[in-house]
UniProtKB/TrEMBL annotation:
Keywords: Hydrolase, Metal-binding, Metalloprotease, Protease, Zinc. PROSITE patterns: PROKAR_LIPOPROTEIN (PS51257). Its cofactor is Zn(2+). InterPro entries: Mito/Outer_Membr_Metalloprot, Peptidase_M48. Pfam families: Peptidase_M48. It comes from Flavobacterium palustre. Binds 1 zinc ion per subunit. This is Peptidase M48. Residues 89-256 form the Peptidase M48 domain. Belongs to the peptidase M48 family.
Length: 272
């Protein structure tokens, strides 16, 4: 199994000695993919998506999505400038679109391309609820989580190749067994926790952005409480999910709110 140890060691080094630093957290992050590689593809995919789906424009709801999105963008610019990262967003091309869909979801592609599905609006209820969602999604893009997931997938593939090399002399059944062990272990033990950590990080950054933008971060608790009620307890077990459970997320948010308010106060935004 020496080859297996070698490939596992390469993957571990990739996770530990990553290639970029997140300016919003100061943490080193796993990122082998540059914005110059990622953004053009992202922008193209976004354009294709908009052509293939029903974009809502000109309505009060569509205007609200754009207005809240712009406030979150400006908050991100102010926050990054305060961290000495004025050029960080130079390649971002912001767009905020409302799409007609019953799906309760929203997302932001690398480079600032945002979609909010109309199905989530009854749960956001107000501007602060919408800011909770958009702040979270924008934070995924600002923290380069998409690039990090791509990088982690590359390492996961490398690990699978290592397992294949290490078990090449064994029977086909043994090879398949080891690949299954590796697939389950790497997914549950590495990839899913990695994804959940991204969600928690995006929650934290998102709270800060919505607070700087003037939206009370306490409203994030109300939004996620409504989301939890809407799911009806149908979410998978946390350890098998890409997202923290609603209870974990709400508990984390409550602990994060004081810091978000403290940072917003530095920008002159104070909540009673």
């Amino acid at each position: 199994m020496k080859k297996n140890i070698l490939f596992t060691g390469i993957a571990a080094l990739g996770l530990i000695y990553s290639c970029a630093t997140n300016p919003l957290t100061g943490k080193k992050t796993l990122n082998f993919v540059s914005n110059s590689e990622l953004f053009p593809s992202s922008f193209q995919q976004y354009g294709t998506f908009l052509k293939e789906n029903k974009v809502v424009s000109g309505t009060a709801e569509a205007k609200k999505v754009e207005a809240v999105g712009i406030k979150i963008k400006l908050a991100a610019e102010r926050y990054l400038a305060s961290l000495g990262q004025t050029d960080y967003l130079k390649d971002y091309q912001w767009e905020y679109k409302l799409v007609d869909s019953k799906e309760v979801n929203a997302w932001c592609m690398p480079g600032g391309k945002i979609v909010v599905y109309s199905g989530i609006l009854p749960i956001t209820k107000n501007d602060a609820g919408l800011a909770t969602v958009m702040g979270h999604e924008v934070s995924h893009a600002l923290a380069n989580h998409g690039a990090q997931r791509m990088s982690a997938s590359q390492l996961q593939t490398l690990g699978a190749a290592g397992v294949a090399a290490a078990t090449g002399g064994k029977s086909a059944e043994k090879q398949q067994m080891w690949q299954q062990y590796y697939g389950i272990g790497s997914q549950v033990g590495v990839m899913l926790p990695f994804s959940r950590s991204h969600e928690t990080e995006a929650d934290k950054i998102g709270l800060t952005l919505m607070a700087i933008a003037g939206y009370n971060p306490e409203e994030a608790i109300n939004f996620w409480t409504r989301m939890s009620a809407n799911s009806g307890g149908q979410a998978p077990a946390e350890m098998l999910s890409t997202h923290p459970s609603d209870a974990t997320r709400i508990a984390n948010l409550k602990a994060m709110i004081p810091e978000a308010k403290a940072i917003a106060a530095k920008f002159g935004v104070v909540f009673k």
